[in-house]
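Sequence design from tokenized structure. All designs in this work follow the same two-part layout: the structure record, then the generated sequence. An example of the structure record is given first.
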């Protein structure tokens, strides 16, 4: 049988390759326009300290501070190294088992809220089911977010 010659495809130029790489890098960094407009599940239900609580995607308990509501922030500066804000990128509407919202933090980031209260994880929790921040008092009282 005679051998057929392989078909020749046009070779991409350096500019085309670099453009494709740049588009992929930007999509990875900022998300595609379609994903930016769609909802992103960032909150789940879990169990901690004998209660049903809200958790992040890793299963860590989410908390709110009693004195923070509707854009009034107390946890700023060094506080966010202990209580880490649950944030989403611009254009992302957070979803979960309850109605969620977002509020702009003093640093410009968009923090997820439940019932008007910003949500945080606690650095004292390292596994699912822990709620070591429950009842912690400083400028207010921290409570696990319960649906």
């Amino acid at each position: 049988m005679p051998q057929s010659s392989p078909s020749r495809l046009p070779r991409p130029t350096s500019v085309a390759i670099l453009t494709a790489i740049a588009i992929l890098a930007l999509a990875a960094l900022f998300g595609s326009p379609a994903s930016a407009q769609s909802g992103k599940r960032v909150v789940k239900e879990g169990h901690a300290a004998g209660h049903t609580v809200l958790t992040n995607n890793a299963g860590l308990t989410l908390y709110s501070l009693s004195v923070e509501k509707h854009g009034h922030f107390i946890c700023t500066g060094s506080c966010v190294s202990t209580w880490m804000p649950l944030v989403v990128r611009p254009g992302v509407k957070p979803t979960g088992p309850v109605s969620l919202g977002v509020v702009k933090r003093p640093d410009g980031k968009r923090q997820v809220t439940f019932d008007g209260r910003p949500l945080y994880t606690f650095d004292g929790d390292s596994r699912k089911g822990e709620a070591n921040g429950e009842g912690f008092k400083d400028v207010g009282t921290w409570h696990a977010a319960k649906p």
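Residues 71 and 104 are 7 Å apart (CA to CA). We note this feature because it recurs in several other targets discussed in the main text.
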